Amino acid sequence: MMALDRVSGEPRRGSLATRIVLACVAVAGIAVLVAGVVMAGLARRSAQNVLQDSLSAQADVIASQVDERGLGSRAVGLGRVAEVVRGQGIVVVILLPRRGIQPTDQRSTQAATTAGLNDIASTQRISSTVSVDGTDYLVEARGIGPSSGFALVEPVRMASDTQRILIRNILFALGAGLLVAALAGALLGRLLGRPLRRTADVAAAMRQGRRDLRAPVEGPAEVAEVAQAVNELSIALQHSEERQREFLLSVSHELRTPLTAVHGFAESLADGVATDPRHAGQVIQQESQRLERLVTDLLDLARIGADQFHLDLARVDLRETLTACAEVWRVRCERQGVHFRLDLPPTPAVVTTDPRRIRQVLDGLAENALRATPPHANLTMSLGYAGPSNQAGPPSHSGAGAVVIQVRDGGPGLAPEDYAVAFERGVLNQKYRGRRPVGSGIGLALAHGLITRLGGTLTAAPAPEGGAAFTIHLPT
Questions:
Q1: Domain membership of residue 417 as a residue range
Q2: Residue 211 and residue 239: Cα distance in Å, rounded?
Q3: What phi and psi values does residue 120 have, to the nearest 5 degrees?
Q4: Of 7, 65, 164, 459, whose CB is crowded by the most CB atoms within 10 A?
């Protein structure tokens, strides 16, 4: 079973260096064993071939020196040869006419017989390997005359000796190979583990909140890629946290303004110094509603990516939604001296969507537009269709690729580079705070998230009225 860490209770894993050492030792051991097995077989066959060639040469020499008359038991030449070769572990088996094979060593006689000495013809050569009782014998037979000849028989013991020597050498090579592999694996594990350990230390520091550390990009390509990825993650986290801090600052500012008003008027009512209690109550009510909307937007923005975020989808004619929305914003624009315009198509614009969320998005876009629009300028809310090109300018009433809703204003607009980041939380608030009226930075991010959740798109671009145009595409 895998050991558990006493502190964390998680399985204790071996280090990379240990695993590399074990892998190198295993590979080296397998390689040496496989090579040894192959070499043992080759050496055995090579030694056997050498013995066969040597025995064949000796048989040729004897055959050239002995004739048929010299094969008899009284022949001095062959007897002397037999004495000489017997010292080398070679047995001479003789075949005589009418008398057959002369008895000698039983196994050698059986090997010669099996090789075909009984049927050897004059001047015939037999070179064979025969197994008798589990032992291999080399047989070199030569025919001398009719029904006569001899055979040199030698057990293959030299090949076994060679194999034992080879096995001993293989074991030595295996030990040396395993030692070298262990050293090489330890060195390799250290070289690979050092940059990984440094990267892990940086990641651990990041977990503690550090964002100023960077892992050294070194080592093999894969290890360097890991370090580079950790460094990029650190930079991304640092940037994200800075954006979050800026966003929280802007939200805190938006919360503080109505809270200050509520606190001030409530304190005046409590102290009995309010000159107009009814007016104070109205201000407290308005500012509390403002706070409620802000908190609701924050909650919606936090929940919008969750599975439990609820949408009430229905078939809706968006002309009715924009008409109801326009009644409210026309009045608010008139109070500030802004010209409001509503542009609707002559035919129904029916889509499957959540009308309450669409109205929430329109109110948010209109509030941002009115905040930036000076008196006597235009604020336009329009509805139309986009054809196959999906292009939105002033909406076209031909085609039915998607329904397009636009909220355009005649304010100062945005810098060209700001349209691409308009829906990121707090970006516009951070840039334009103190230069023009700005919101909390929540509304545009929330609108973008809602439209995306509804299957549409929300984009920002310059408007013909001179300000900014926010365009919603909803599939039909």
A1: 314-475
A2: 10
A3: -70, 140
A4: 459
Counting every residue, how long is the chain?
476
The 8-class DSSP code of residue 147 comes to: T
Pair 394, 382: CB distance under 8 Å: yes
Q: Mean pLDDT throughout 338-364?
A: 91
Distance CA 117, CA 119 (A): 5
Helix (H) or strand (E) holding 148: strand 148-155
For residue 222, being part of any structural domain is answered with: no
CATH of residue 46's domain is 3.30.450
Mean predicted lDDT score pLDDT of the chain:
78
Q: In what helix (H) or strand (E) does residue 264 lie, and over which residues does it extend?
A: helix 221-271
200-258 confidence digits (pLDDT tens): 788 888 888 777 778 888 777 777 888 888 888 888 888 777 767 766 665 665 667 67
Domain boundary among 303, 337, 361: 303
The answer to pTM > 0.90 is: no
Residue owning tokens 């599939």: 475
**What residue type is assigned to position 197 of the chain?**
R
3-state secondary structure of 262: helix
CATH of the domain at 410: 3.30.565.10
Pair 93, 39 in one domain: yes
C-alpha 465/C-alpha 186 separation (Å) is 71
* Domain-embedded: residue 5: no
pLDDT at 10 over 60: no
For residues 299 and 194, membership in a common domain is answered with: no
